[in-house]
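Q: Two folds, back to back.
A: First:
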Amino acid sequence: MMSKVFSVIIALCIVMSLAACGKAENSDSQPVASENKVTENGSVGSDEDTGMDDEEDMAEINMVFMSMAAIPNGLQAVEDAINEITEAEINTHVNIEMIEVGSYDQQVGLKISSSEKVDLMVSLPTGSAAFASMISQNQLMDISDLLSEYGQGVLDTVGTIINATSVDDAVYGVPSYRSYVTSIYIAMRTDVLEDLGLLEKAQSMTTFTEYEEILDTVKNSEKWNYLSGVVAVSNGEILSKPGAYIGNEDFSDANVYDQLGELNKLVSVSCDGSSTEVLNNFDTDEYKAMYTRVKGWNDKGYIYKDSTTTKETGASLIKSNAAFSIIVSGESDVQTSQSSSCGYDMTCTKVVTRPISTADCQKFVWVVPNSATEPEAAVKMMNLLFTDASINNLLAWGIEGTDYVVEDGIARYLDEKDADSTAYHTVDFIYGNQFLIIPWDGNEADLREKAKLEMNEAPVSAFLGFSCDTSDISSELSAVINTLNEYKPSIDSGLASEDDYAAFLKKMDASGLPKIIDTYQTQLDAWYSINKN
């Protein structure tokens, strides 16, 4: 496994066209993560930088992104505060629409299919609103020229990470700039663990047998047996996490793979470059082992009974006191983020850390859909999202002094009662630049510095930077995703029988998965012949 400094690895293993950035950057090479100086209000650049003309009519854009929980109070006040910045800095009025994550995929799909005005939005990790899916459906603008003219701050910030969202000479979006080091964690309610005397066991566990013993204790306890032991993150997903096979008994025996930027987990290849063979992910022994383990949990009654049909996220079910634990992908501040999302203090035990891959960079991508009517203003706003500390903190935590206070470099509620949704509060990882956001209570003030150091030292996939052009297989991808939607929730939640699993694999082949794998294989072979070390 490679573990060189992140920026050096990317520069070595990616020569995949940065012609788009060639238009946008000067002849000096750009670092992966360059710092941007901000003004007193957090903005970067001048009127000349943003192309603002005082005599121009003010542009108006619609910006859409998801809320990981219920839509917070105070959104209008946050929008007003952001417009005080954008109207002065880039002559643009921003209309913000937040959509709960459980319905985001469907609602965004309807907006795009009906050509509703959406000028700027963030993509989801999976589904039809995922970055790769939107490219395959030709729903996104090539913004390379716009970035060159209006987004130099974006390019300076993300550097060669832009390759993860580029195809040939076209740039179709910009990855949210955050820690790309992702681990898989089992997150459990701390209050339940403490009450049952299981906290130390949960914190030190190294096998799934130990986790199952905890689930069994919760299930058979007189006080907590009403809680479902484990709940899916969404769409039935329990053990099936991007880039990781965690069906083995010992956490230390977990395997990792690169999904080559295909966020529906259709394909996999070994991260270390020892083989370039592209596999059908669902037909691997490792994936079947996860199915078998979860099926056993379902048979024992550990899994939330409506995992395949509920529209609620796993975090919201824990918050509503319906479940005990969830298995999640997360970054270095996972304990704080999960406690915030779940509404309870959560104890998070790591299972495995994945090497950084293209899929990590494509998890949340800021894009300009083809339905945008103000693409220039959208990219100007994108530039602020990646460089303006004030806008990032407004979107994450709301208005300082009203929704939160800052003490010793840490943001926290004015009063603990505000945690009961009386104040605006969201997450910190989907907006343009997480490294500009003040760490939330429960973290250390130097969290961002530590996260950046961790990212620079993290292992990376041999295929980081590879991005497949899927335009010729869009119909196959659509058919395969329809099959996934039909079968995968019941497979991933352990409800499907072995016959159902076999029928799923057969229908995936009939839907066109072999052609998809062949396309990835051909393009990966060509890319790797140029980029291998």
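A: Second:
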Amino acid sequence: MKTYLKSRSCGELRAEHEGEEVSLAGWVHRRRDHGSLIFIDLRDHEGIVQVVFNPKGAEEAHKVASDVRNEYVLHVKGTVARRPSGTENRNMPTGEVEVRAQGAALLNPSKTPPFYINEDTEVEDLLRLRYRYLDLRRERMHKNMILRHNVTRFIRNFLSDRGFTEVETPILIKSTPEGARDYLVPSRVNPGLFYALPQSPQQLKQLLMVSGFERYFQIAHCFRDEDLRADRQPEFTQLDMEISFINEDDMLNLMEDLHVAMVETIRPDVRLPKPFPRFTYDEAMRRFGTDKPDLRYGMELVDISDLLAESEFEVFQQTLAAGGVVRAICAPGGAVLSRRQIDELTDFVKTVGGKGLISIGLTGEGPVEELTAEEFHSPTHRFLRLEEVRGIAARAGANRGDLIIMVADQEEQVCQALDGLRREMARRLDLVDEGVFTFCFVTEFPLLDWNEAEERWDPVHHPFTSPKEEDLPLMDTDPGHVRARAYDLVCNGWEIAGGSIRIHRRDVQEKMFSLLRISPEEAQYRFGHMLEAFEYGAPPHGGIATGLDRTVMILAGERDIREVIAFPKTKTASDPLFGAPSTVSDAQLAELHIALRPGVVPKESP
């Protein structure tokens, strides 16, 4: 776009613009003084172009260039010319040309930045966030923000073309339990009352279905007062969708179409296996130990409990007698690991929920059926019979040179430990293919989870998830075996979207509240608007929410969602740039009719 200072962007200049007089403006990315000639790489939003300052014929411009330094803001007028033969820069899109300056003006100087902007060097996180406006100038971060924009634009166009209506929902709503802690906002005009920032537009989008908007979406800002990690922020953005008159297949087919088209448009350089495989929750846990499986490598879990029913090893005996299981994974080529490395894995498994592991390394040549006692090594060698090892190897699909890792415990702990080991072994053995995006769907989650401490059921997803029709009678007799009409979308071991077919009948919703120990009075107080709406012809409907930050993180090849958020928080939910959260004046507190409890001393601003 042309402006009064720019006739072109730096990054758009090419050989076909040779001879064109241009007006450019941007930041000094790099300056090189070659005596009489000064070369400046000028950077703007679109990219970088080399500008040459020659005192012959452009003395004033050369004087300006003599005084500028990195990150000074500069205005340049000049002529586009081809670079002399042999000096082209094939690593730059503009590398065939340069701008020969005829005039220049300093628009603003810059202090020396606290870190290099023209180099992708490691910088301490707090320093980056303290000077986020400088961090965002760096090439990788700038590209991430542009990628995020392109993803959001693609989603809007894709859904709009398929009849969806984008509707904005309120940020100030009522506090209702949805699984995480709310951020509360005191009301000045209603003393003693509070709004909550939405954890998601869940109830609002369901009400839009009752309102007759059959296909809704929103790029929604959401807030959860949770402990943070690499893929979680207190405020985040999600693609929120809800559709009337659909079933699970309709939603999964739409999501697959959306993500295939998005990846093939945004990241055509990666491989994308399709169609996306679909696993029930039980199958995912049995095969991978997790409902977020990474399909870029094998090492699926196998149950070997029956093969060890008569084992002489006390650990196996005690585990199986207590109703536990023994499962294994096969790490290809892992038999080369040393005893020290096996000990490291034993220590590792304790950090991911396991008590320990048993390993078997297979050596020699030939089929595993012909394995001899001298051709396998294990710290528990003397407790393992040869026929047991052969049977385990066959079931695990192991070959000579592979390492079999076994964990014995209760099923939940075994799944957790082997999921962690599977990911760790893939990393250690370099089995992860970064050039592929493997998506899958996981369906039929449990509807409820028993809360031992509070002696009640908790929703696995949220209270508005519909049970499978055939499982409705179990809500009265066996709630723990009720399956939900819920589904997740997973990519490369990350859950990036989750949703469900919703409850749309008042009687079923009241039954759900009853199982959650929400009394009729509390249900009416907190969710009366929903229950009443269901009595006015609520259509069957379902939806899904995609974590936009996490999706962009994966597309960008990053490992932390802060790398794709313009102004994120630290892991303590603080903002080093603005110094938030911060104290407020007594007058502001008084105006909101609230006061700090005696003895509460606010921390210093971050």
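Q: And?
A: Residues 57 and 185 are 64 Å apart (CA to CA).
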